[in-house]
Amino acid sequence: MSDHDQIWTNAQDIAGIKAEQRGFGERLDKNDKLTDTIHKLTASVETLTSAVKEQGQQIKDGLEKQGERIGAIEKLLALAEQNAQEIKDLKGRVNELEKAPAKRWDKLIGAGIAAAVSGGVAAIWALVRGGGTP
């Protein structure tokens, strides 16, 4: 092989090496871009995870507050039922008190009738026994 052929072969080898080197550089650039994308994606996932945790905590807190509200409502319902029973009892007492004057008048009228009948019987008895006018 002549010097010229040797130089030509070396030049071709150098050109091949340079082409390979450019290929490696392009691959490294692509790998760098992929690495940057992976870092951005990782940061996005971390942000999203944090946001999901925060929302989960907010939901948990909201459910606890709802549970407290439901407990308070249940207590109010129990109190309302108790108040309804007390109102029913009071209504019964009011009805009894409203009927009481009528009962008193009934007793008074009954006593008056009894007195009149007793007086009449006594007068008749006096007439029968005494034979005269009272």
What does the secondary structure layout of this molecule look like, with pairings?
Elements lengths: L2 H128 L4
Question: Can you offer a commentary on this structure?
Answer:
The chain is mainly alpha-helical. It has one domain (1-97). 96% of the residues lie in helices and 0% in strands. The chain is built from one helix and no strands. The protein has one helix at 3-130. The longest helix has 128 residues, at 3-130. The mean pLDDT is 84.
Summarize the structure.
The chain has one helix at residues 3-130. It is mainly alpha-helical.
Order of helices and strands: H
Radius of gyration: 56 Å
Number of domains: 1
Q: What is the makeup of the main sheet?
A: none
Termini separation = 181 Å
Mean pLDDT, rounded to whole units? 84
DSSP summary: helix tally: 1
Shape, please? Answer: rod-shaped
Assign a percent range to the helix content.
over 70%
Strand content: under 5%
Q: Which structural class do you get from the secondary structure elements?
A: mainly alpha
Q: How many beta-strand runs? A: 0
Low-confidence stretches: none
Write out key terms for the chains shown.
0% strand; rod-shaped; mainly alpha; 134 residues
